[in-house]
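Hi everyone, sorry if this is the wrong subforum. Our group has a chain we'd like a structural model of before ordering constructs, and none of us has done structure prediction before. Sequence below.
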Amino acid sequence: MMAEFQMADELLRTLILILDLCGTFAFALSGAMAGIRRRLDVFGVLVLSFAASTFGGISRDLLIGAVPPAALVDWRYLAVSLLAGLIAFFWSPLIQKLRNPVRMLDAVGLAFFAVAGAEKALGFGLSPLMAALLGMLTGIGGGVARDVLLAEIPAVLRSDLYAVAALAGAAIVVGGSILNLPIIVAALGGGLVCFGLRMAAIRRGWQLPIAQESDMPDSSDKG
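Answer:
Right subforum, don't worry. Here is the predicted structure as tokens:
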């Protein structure tokens, strides 16, 4: 019994590491490509790739008490983010041939991190609701860091389905855990739902409701 528990725990750790590194690579590419579009130099591109690829995971680890955060103690996170940043910097014309490369890579990273965040939160004993919310936070953190550093309104605060996609993917993972589904099945299902929902929102223009502006003049314009 103890051996089975140890094997399951080791499988979960390995899965989270793989998802984290895959998400790190995708978000690092996304951050680097966004920096290249804004004409940053190589140092700026690498800084942006590291920030975009690790902010969500660092926030997650701090909130669940997994300190120091994995991204700050495991050299692989830094290596993967820098590698992705250099690939984007030197081969950006090839990546640009993809349709909406930043948004697509962002959707990939969002899916990986939402799943990894929910799985790690469950592993640390959080309730299903909190695990789903933490999965969402892990997914959106990198995109928020990237957009803030580029002085843009974060995508999560705009009308397209960003946080909703991350929450949906994390909820699938949590639901799979409640139903005692295999970890791989739940992770795959959650990732596909998150990525599919995000890409569908981009291509079909799905949006959340936006408040209508008042036609009344702004009081600050008076006198």
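For your construct planning: The chain has a mean pLDDT of 86. DSSP finds eight helices and no strands in the chain.
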